[in-house]
Amino acid sequence: MAQAKSNKVADKVVATEKQSSASDSYTNFKPYEASKNEEYMNPQQLEHFQNILLEWKRELMEKVDETVHHMQDESGNIPDPNDRASQESDFTMELRTRDRERRLIKKIESSIKHLDDDEYGFCDNCGEEIGIRRLEARPTADLCIDCKTLDEIREKHINH
Prior knowledge:
The structure is a single chain. By secondary structure, the protein is mainly α. It has a domain at 2-18 and 37-120: DksA, coiled-coil domain (Four Helix Bundle (Hemerythrin (Met), subunit A), Up-down Bundle), CATH 1.20.120.910. 70% of the residues lie in helices and 0% in strands. It is built from 5 helices and no strands.
């Protein structure tokens, strides 16, 4: 019986890890095919990224709702201390994942605001183009690769 409980906990850990890694980036879209000499951040590109951001946000919000329902369903009075501790550990892990997703939703909302303000796709530091492929890899990117690299180098030096 203890082995079955242990396997159940392990399955939940794996499922939670899959959920959290899936939430780190949104990949369920068709890559944008730019035509030659196409203007950067034209209406078609803006629509492409708006669709990506809105769909990603929708999926994350669904996960939040699922977590709330799951925790309400599972939060009964469990008399066995080991089972209760296991459940609390599961809930803690789920809440940690949802907190990361909550912060990600804020970044998505910020990116959507950048879209609305015609600022999306341009580096917040230098104003250069971030690039279609970089934005598809990280739709919430607000720095071009050069500024992000410099930012990471500075952070590495400060922390060491």
